[in-house]
Amino acid sequence: MSGAAIDLYHTLWSPPSRAVRMIGRAVGAQFNLIECNLMAGEHMKPEYLKMNPLHTVPTINDNGFYVWESRAIGHYLINKFAPGTSLIPTDLRRRALYDQMLFFDYSLLFSFSTMTRKVLLGAKQLDRSDVKRCHECLRLLNSFLSESEYLVGDEITMVDYSAAASIAGCQTGMFGISGHPHTQRWFNKVRNEIDGFDEINEPGVQMIQAFMSMATPPDPKPSKL
């Protein structure tokens, strides 16, 4: 299906924004990319709140039809441009596992975005509980991927696009995935398979790593005497 380009309000460092761009490319959607400057408060302007009352990115405007929340946008794009594709499973049980992983992906993203947001707002030191939560998400992800090639069986789905955008910023430093071999194997695989992965993700990943370098690790937990 062809037509006018869809307005996509995004930020480079936002994993959900990058996930939507990758999904759009996979299904042949054309975007008019509009950078939303969150630090300048552009997401709080009345015209933006009309499209997205939750004032988040990404948001799309498809000829007056507004959709926010990256997974909802991804489903919309797939159903519009590539209906019936294997990116969204149709088998009952496989779809249940897919939905399950979508909810896990949200918790994975939320853990890392919460920590990043605190640094953006001026935190000088990472919170120990945030760091612990992120490591637990990585541990769980590695466990899930020990049983299959992708997050839902042996075929790539939209949830792989979404999760990979979040994990792209965790390749080095405190949250490097080298200690999670199944996640490392999966990430390398989807990175090679998803068209434009590095082109879309690398600028935002560099921004995230620059943000996080401004904060020091949490103090070691005091040992019990």
UniProtKB/TrEMBL annotation:
GO terms for biological process: glutathione metabolic process. InterPro entries: Glutathione-S-Trfase_C-like, Glutathione-S-Trfase_C_sf, Glutathione_S-Trfase, Glutathione_S-Trfase_N, GST_C, Thioredoxin-like_sf. Residues 91-211 form the GST C-terminal domain. Keywords: Transferase. One of its GO terms (molecular function) is glutathione transferase activity. Residues 4-85 form the GST N-terminal domain. The keyword Transferase applies. It holds the Pfam family GST_C. Belongs to the GST superfamily. Homodimer. This is Glutathione S-transferase 1, isoform D. It comes from Amphibalanus amphitrite (Striped barnacle). The gene is GstD1_2.
